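In the current project phase, the collection of sequences with tokenised folds has grown. A sample record is quoted in full directly below:
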Amino acid sequence: MAEAGPFSWREEGRVFLVDAHCHLQDGHLRYGLDQAMDRARRAGVGLLFCNGTAEDDWDYVLSLPVRHSEVLPWLGLHPWFVDEARPGWQERLERLLGDGVCGLGEIGLDRAVEGADVDRQEEAFVAQLRLASKHRLPVSIHCRKAWERLVALLRAEGGLRYGGIVHSYAGSAEMVPVLEALGCSISFSCSLTRPNNKRARRACRYVSMDRLLVETDSPAIAPEGVERDRNEPENLVLVVRALAQLLNLSPDDVAGTTASNANGLLPESCRITIRP
């Protein structure tokens, strides 16, 4: 697992890390959450965007801030689970948006899943984009092998008026400015730590500094050297280090910039004060 330092921002208490996308309700994290959160705090992770993916986990995600105030709940229907959605899911989701929800996610498109119902994915995606716009919330987007279609649907909706995240970015470098023009921020996960991930390592150099985010997507997408599906928020430190090296910046600069960008995406009711 990750070691905490050395970061001068951590020693001076000036800024902390924001994990812009994780799933604390899944896998080993759900059953060892208190310990995982302790490790994350020691590593300097001060805020986490926890994304729901299906109706059955929404209530649990909403409950997390009671135990851990640094967790911000996001709710959404993931493209993998659109076929399992029950009638009335949109209405239920909208009712829950008044309960301290900070964004809609995880939503999106996935053409890599064999036998996926593409039409249902798109219907659910567009419905949630419209909910986000109605409630003035950002979105967190999953996209695999559907980049052109993602752009087309975002354009048809007039872009993301209240911003959003393309999480665990796996698109091309050339797609980055197209997505930014539609209101997207670009987030890099622990896959960036893998030397063979040349696509993401090239793409990160094309992201505007005010659109750059970091995440773990834990417990999935473990970093280099960590057992698959045993990822944790503490490993955000490894993403920051990898990104700093690729961009020829200090880890302090990457930590501060991405924390400020993530905080700025949130509705005012969810934002925190980051000391200069």
Remarks:
- The mean pLDDT is 93.
